[in-house]
Amino acid sequence: MAERIEVVESQTGDRVEGQTSELQRRSSGGLHRVVIVGGGFGGLQCTIDLKGAPVHITLIDRRNHHLFQPLLYQVATTSLATSEIAWPIRSLLRTRPDVETLLATVTGVDTAGRRVLLDGGDAVPYDTLVLATGARHAYFGHDEWEPFAPGLKTLEDATTVRRRLLLAFERAERATDLDERQALLSFVIIGGGPTGVELAGTIAELAHENLRGDFRHIDTRDSRVVLVEAGPRILPAFTEDLSAYAKGALEKLGVTVELGRPVTDCNADGVMFGGQWLRARTILWAAGVQASPAAQWLDAPADRAGRVLVEPDLTVPGHPEIFVVGDTAMVNGPDGTPVPGIAPAAKQQGGFVARTIGARLKGEPSAGAFRYAHAGSLATIGKRAAVVDFGWLKLTGWTAWWLWGLAHIYFLIGVRNRLAVALSWLWIYLRGQRSARLITQGDAGGEALAKD
Amino acid sequence: MAERIEVVESQTGDRVEGQTSELQRRSSGGLHRVVIVGGGFGGLQCTIDLKGAPVHITLIDRRNHHLFQPLLYQVATTSLATSEIAWPIRSLLRTRPDVETLLATVTGVDTAGRRVLLDGGDAVPYDTLVLATGARHAYFGHDEWEPFAPGLKTLEDATTVRRRLLLAFERAERATDLDERQALLSFVIIGGGPTGVELAGTIAELAHENLRGDFRHIDTRDSRVVLVEAGPRILPAFTEDLSAYAKGALEKLGVTVELGRPVTDCNADGVMFGGQWLRARTILWAAGVQASPAAQWLDAPADRAGRVLVEPDLTVPGHPEIFVVGDTAMVNGPDGTPVPGIAPAAKQQGGFVARTIGARLKGEPSAGAFRYAHAGSLATIGKRAAVVDFGWLKLTGWTAWWLWGLAHIYFLIGVRNRLAVALSWLWIYLRGQRSARLITQGDAGGEALAKD
Known about the structure:
With 452 residues, chain A is an alpha/beta fold.
C-alpha cells in the first residue's frame, strides 16, 4: 500500500520566510522533522538507525541511487555492471513510512529559517539537519585538467572511464602511426591511494591478460600502465612494509610505479610529472577530493579541502541543530589525526548522529563526542593480491584478496547484488571474461573516436 | 597469443583509387576477402557460419557490442542491466584468427573500386561484401516527434527510456499541481507490435505492482498506461484470436488499448490520436522502423522503408558480390509476404549468405534462392502471460510465458549472461525487485528534471 500523507499546515509557519510552497506545507504529523541530505553511506546509515525514533525523516539526494563507491573502480574497468553496485534509495526505504525520499538538488540552506532550499524554488523545513553530501574529485586548482584526466566518483564517471579505456584499444587497433599507437596504449593513473592502486592493477590485468587475443594488429601486452604518485610511497595510509609489498605486486603485474613525482601538466597528448613528459591518450585522476559545498551553504569554517570543521559531536559551530558527516566533515580521531574519508567512517558518523538525535528527543544526556574506531584498511592489487591492515593483523597476497572480496560482498546491500557480484567475479576467474566491456554513450562516429 | 598480420600489398591495388591507407594494405594472406558490415544477428551469424571457409573476414560495426535486441525493452523497463544483453563483438570472435573486428562507422561503399569507406578517410577493400546494418525507429515523416517520443533500438535508447520513466514518477512525487501530477503519471506507448505490447505490459506492472509503496505523496496505481495502435488490432503478425487475447491480458494489467487511432501530433505536453488529445509527459515510440542507408550507399532500388530490394539469393541487382541481409533487406518469403524484420529471419539470411559464399569458392552450384522458414511468433504481456504462435501450435498465458522465457535465455550468448538474466528474472518473481532501477546520465538538477 502506498503511504498517503495528508497536507496540513506546517508546524513552523512562523519561521518560514518568502515563498511558501506546497512541499513546505506537507506534514510531519507534528513530529520532529529530520532532513538528511545525501543517500551515501553516512546519510543512509543515519536514516536506518533512526528507525523507531519519534521523527519524520526527509532524505534528499540528487541521484535516485545509493552507490557502493568502494567497487566503483570495478565498473570503470569492465568487471561489474552499474546496477550491481547501485540500488534505488526509495526502494531501500520502502518499508519505512516515517521516511520520505526526495530526488532533488539542494541549492543552499536557510539556517535562520531552518529550511533546505531545492532546485525549482521549493524548500523543506527542518528541526534537525544532517548534511552527508560527500566529495568530488579535485584538481588542486587545475580544473582545466578534468577533460583529459577524468576522476571516479559517480556511475557516469565510471562509464566514462570505461569508454575511454576500451576506445583506446580500439583506436590503437586502427592506428597506422606507431607513435600514435604507443600513445593510445599508454595509460597513466595519477594518485597512489587505494583507488589509484586498484585502477592500475586492474588495467594492467585487462591489457596483459583479458584482452589478449581479441585484437589482430596490436598486442595489448605492449600496453604501458604507469602509476604516478607525488609522495614517497603508494598507499600512505598503510604501514611502510605493506606499501612496499603493494608496489612490488603492481610491478609484477607490469605497472610502472613512479614515486615522488608531482604532476605539473596534463593535456590531450599526455602528462608531465617530475619534469618528465609521457605521451599518453588515457589519463585517469585518483589524486584528490574536494568536499561538497556544504560549508558555503552554512557559511561555516572549513579546511582547504572544503570540509566543515565540525565540533567533536559533529555539529556545526553555533548550530547544534545541524550535523555534518562523512567526506564533507573534518574531525579528528582518537589518535589526533583526521578521520579518513572512507565508507566505514561515514557509517559510524551517521550512526552516531542518529543516536544523538534519539537521546536529545528523549531528554537523555548527549552521547558526547564522536569516537572513530578504525576497523582496518584494505586495498586490492589486481585479482590475486591485496593488502589488509587491521593494526593487530597484517595480510598480503591471496589470503588478503579473499578477505577483501568477502568483506565487500558482505557489505553490499541485498542478497541479489551479492549473488550478481559473486557471479561476475567467478566468471573473471574461471573464464577470464569481464562482463561489462561495453562502450556506451558515444559510438565510433561520435566524439569518442574523434582525434581529440 | 595476439594474432599478428603482416602488412603486404593489397591484392586489388589495381582497382583501388584515391588515397591508399595503411588499412587497405593490410593483408588477407591472398585469401578471398569478405567484409561484413554490422555485428547484429545477421552479420554475426554469417561470420560464425563462414568458419573454416578459405576467406579472410573483416567485421565492421560502429558499436563494440552485439546487442540482444529482443530483450531491450527489459533494460528500458528496469528488469535487466545493459551488460546482461550485450557482448563485445571482438570477444565473441577471439578464437577466430580469420576474423578481424573493426570498430568504425561506414560512410559509404565504392562499388566500382570494391571498397567500404570508413570515418576518418580509411577504406577496406572487399571481394564479397555483406551489409547487415539493421534499422532505426522512424517517425513517418515526423522526425520532430523524436525528442518527445523516443524509440528503442540501442542501449542508449533503453537507458534514455528508463530515465524518463523513473523521472516521471519522481517528478510526480514532487508535483504540487494535480493536473501536472496526472500528466506525469500518464504513459503513452505508440505502436501495437510486440515491442509496444511488451513495453505497455511491463510499465503497467511497474506502476501497479513494483513501485507501490516506494512513494509517499503519489499512489503509483493511479498511473495511466495507454497503448495506441493505428490499425484495427494489436500484434497484427499473430492470428486474430491471439491478438484479442493479448488485448484482454493487457487490459487486465490496467493498460488502456486504443485501436484504429493513428497519432497525428506529439509534443512535450502530450499526444493527439484519433482526434483525441491526451496530456502525458512520457511518450514512447514503437510504431515503425527505417532501414539503414545501405540502399543509398549502393544506389540500389529500395522500398519505402529504405530496405534494399534484393534478388532471391539476397544479392543486390547487378552486384552479385554484394549481399544485404536482415532489417536492411526486402525479400519475400515462400508465402509471398515479406520476410519479417525479426532476429530469426536475420540469422537465417546470414547463414544462407555464408553457405552461398562457401559454395561459390568451391565452384559448386549456387544455393539458389533464400527460403525463409518461419519458426513462430512470440510476445510477452507482463511477467505472467505471453502469446506464442508456431502455426501448428498456439499458446497463451503462463505456459506461453515460460516457453518465451526459456527460448530467450537459450538464445542469449554465453552461459554467464544466461545465469545473470535468469537471476534477474528470479528476483522479480520472488521479491518484486527490479535490478536496474537506475537513473543515469542526467541528475535531478540537470536536463532530466527540467520542466521541458
